[in-house]
Predict the 3D structure of the following.
Amino acid sequence: MTKRTLFVLIFILSIAALLSFAMLKRGHPWWDDFASYVMQARAILSGEMDAFVRRNAFTVQNSSYPPGPVAYPWGYPLLLAPVVALFGVHPLALKLVGIAFYVLFLGVFFLLARRRLTESEALLLTGVLAVNPALLLANDLILSDIPFLAVSTLGVWWMEAYLSRQERGTDPHPQPLSRRERGRDGLLLGLVIFVAAFLRTNGILLFVPLMVASLIRYWGEWKTALRQVLLPLGAFLALYLAASLLFPNGQDSYLNHFSMFSLTRLWENFWFYLWLPSWTFRELPGGVVFYPILALFLLFSVAAHWKRDLPLYAYCLATLGLFILWPERQGLRFIYPVLPFLFLFAFEGMKLARERLPARGREIASRTIAGFWSVLLLLSLGTSLYTAWENLAANREINGPFDEFSYDLYEFIRAETPPDAVIVFVRPRALRLFTDRDSFMTTRCEDLPKGDYAAIHEKMGNVGQIPPEQITACPGVRLEEVFNNRRFTVYRINP
């Protein structure tokens, strides 16, 4: 890498970090996955991880549908733990973890891109991702998605390097790797895959491209192919076993979510995820045109390099297949790990399409390609700058569970309810984070007697709770209003 390239890359990473920070709000949406991550971080600091699992199991098992697993993988809470120790439940501080990993992702993506593109093209493509408003806004969420994006991309990059080093590239006089070098490379790959799975369970899918690549490169030499997989797999299993001895498991509760599975949902999910990448451009003026164009040129890359990139296609398809089967949808965040490859293969597909043109048309095509990506870069940068300016002008709006109305609710519950009270609430994990009261959510009147109080979010209607206008008509229970503000009403549940 030249000094000029390094300087431009650092400039791109700095712009991404500054824009991300400028977009951060002082609150958080009412998705309470973040609360579970923060409570797991607290549990690590206090050494009460088993107690967390026990209390969260109560929430999951008593809710009318599971709001999440009993425990998320412990990798992201482990990253949050130092921040929680230093700053407590401070949303801005907690979000800085995501920004750091977004910068890491961009650096790794550049290294991955320049294997297929020139350095200038790789810088341009990295810049497009660096200022994409949809991806930058993801850093405003206290979730594991961006750290997982960084580590999974690192896993793909290191996997290609690992397999390439085993062959020593195209050197006509290669020096064979020593057993120690082979072992080190395999162990490092196993470590990266473990970290990915320790952040999100689907990180284990990184073994899919490794197995596919090994079979392609060593077709007919099954012992050699198996050897390329066994060492990383062994390192992964050893680390996974060590982690399972230190951290309690709760991911098996994910299986409860399949109670909502149906063939109709499967078909709907297929079409949903087929079009979902278009959300990457929803914030942009005229953004609807970009995804069809990228998808079209992606096909050129697939047709020309299907064998070379089959491992990556397998990884992308395995990731999409997993979430097509998964009954719940959570938007773009589920497919972050495959989005970089849409951009990369589409760029390469444009170059391949250009080569099919007559000589006189290639120069025009080159300018058109550069113009397309430059327009996308400028639109993304302009939109992100405007979004950041709006956010700062609004003094980083405090929203969701961190606003004043929510804190009034927490203060009432902490002061006026017994420590062993059970609260029925639409976001039970967030309520427990701020009040230390056990909680569950329900949409069924018959579940109310399992709680001592019911807190109703007046603006959420029937989403995850009994509608505010209907709860007082629930048969078999007597509700006594004990608290009300503009956002919440709390009832004592009397038998």
